[in-house]
Design goal:
The protein is of the alpha/beta class. It has a single domain, classed as Aldolase class I (TIM Barrel, Alpha-Beta Barrel), CATH 3.20.20. Helix content is about 40%, strand content about 20%. It contains 12 helices and 12 strands.
Amino acid sequence: MKGNTVKIGNKLVGKGQPCYVVAEIGINHNGSLETAKELIKVSADAGCFAVKFQKRTLDVVYTSEELARPRENPFGHTNGDLKRGLEFSTEDYHEIDQYCKELDIHWFASCWDEASVDFIEQFDPPCYKIASASLTDDVLLRYHRKYGRPIILSTGMSTMAQIEHAIDVLGKDDLIVLHSTSTYPAQVEELNLKMIHVLMKKYDFPVGYSGHEPGLATTFATAVMGASMIEKHITLDRAMWGSDQAASVEPTGIVRLVDYISQWEEAVGDGVKKVYDSEIPIQKKLRRKG
């Protein structure tokens, strides 16, 4: 879809539409399908529009030396043991797909290589997410367009020139761009939220935010600034093992975030000053003249 709205599944994202909140499960499931399903349930109950996972073909994304690097983890003693332990099987993804359908919540993934795009395509995803780490991979960006689905592009750890180049490669149709700072967790003084307005002024497509900072205040502020989509990492417990847990919010946090955004959308109004019927009794009681 051209212009300032993009259709994700059965939902429009963009100007005049509710903020599309994505719960980023990522790898916070720690390789457990049951944990993933708990996080999906939490997200659906909170009112999120979608959950997101990460998909990698390990021997493509990582070198053999990187996979063999020593790294103590719950699955073994090497980085490869960890990465393999965090990857779900085809059967697992079929169960995730079915569970999301039962709960009526979208799901999609950030695919870190071409084979992962092909793998996720079998589940008929409503869109694809391109991670900040992949923003400069022109071949992968073009490959995502092969299936004609909407694209969400995160822009962490990237210069403006790199962002502009990635947008040129992808094209502006069916594109949503998310401002982001790729530190886990991100520091408040490095969030640079004004970039959201910079991107809005420059481009006529939906602009949103992918937040990696602890807490809710600054993430909620991006909804007030007009973010069309907000992505937030979630976890069952920030004390759980894993590199992304500290940059995530727990179940009560995602519930509060969605609630805050909903209240803001209800309260924002149309900017036309009026006297409400509920004010009339107060007006008569307190106003001496007029």
